[in-house]
Amino acid sequence: MPGILRGLLPFAVAVPVLLAVQLLTADAPFFVILSLTVGVNVVLAVSLNIINGMTGQFSIGHAGFMAVGAYIAGVVSKVLSEYGIAFLPEGVSDQLLYAISLLVGAVAAAAFGFLVGLPSLRLKGDYLAIVTLGFGEIIRVVVQNTELFGKALGLSGVPQRTTFFSCWLLVVLVVVVAWRIRRSTHGRALLAIREDEIAAEAMGVNTTAYKVRAFVVASFFAGLAGGVFAHYQSIVAPSSFTFVKSMEVVVMVVAGGLGSTTGAIVAAVFLTLLPEALRSLFLQLSGDGTMAQMVEQIRMPIYGLLLVVIMLVRPQGLFGTRELWEVGPFKRLFGEKR
Fold it and tell me: Environment class of residue 290 by beta-carbon count within 10 Å: exposed (0-12), middle (13-18) or buried (19+)?
């Protein structure tokens, strides 16, 4: 029972805080949209960290799993919204249907993760990266040519049901699950694979099975992120799931430190807010907004330059394989000993 209570403690703290923030920011739509974008990117970064950081593999097709979750959840939500749940109040019915849609989209993404992971995770390094890249592009091309998903125009009319509370409660859930995985027997097996796959196999670790499991879990979370994204954008377009999006998430994981959950969170928040900060700065400098329009064009070059600088100055990333409370002043603050 104490273990269960410790597991529920983050949610007991998060629920009232998130409800309070949602009430206080009800009249601040820009803050809400920006916070939802940050939350989605945090989920993507933490989930990819399970593959690239904890397991030591190299996947660059995460946007493909996000796309599966977004499109499947969007279609399911549109179908279910036509019926509703008659014996429940409208608000409760909408949120229940929203949760069902997210779950269906996440399970579909996990299924694709299994189908891709089972044969491809016998590969390593660059070969695995090429397979995951190919999968992401296949998904994008398929949805771009499928009538059910709106083809190139995208899937429109998805009910806007994502709230600040639901998005960030999902963030808390994903972070807690990722942290518990890291501290579990499965997590130690993943870390052993990352450090030395041959030695892990010699000690009896089924490396292929564990890598597939990591891929399925990460794909499930990416599908959840896609579903949340679809339900606040309302329009899901293929252009949102290109190779560029996958590389954004990879940069977040590498910048935060491969294997560090808190590092992925910090990097995701910083890199999501950076374009908005630059846009506000350029808007003030130009006055007419012409410089602010350049932000979208220079965003990826800035990401690339940042990644090069990090690799030169601190190749292990912001926190390396450690967590926030294990480094610098935070280590002394929380009383952790190395």
Answer: exposed
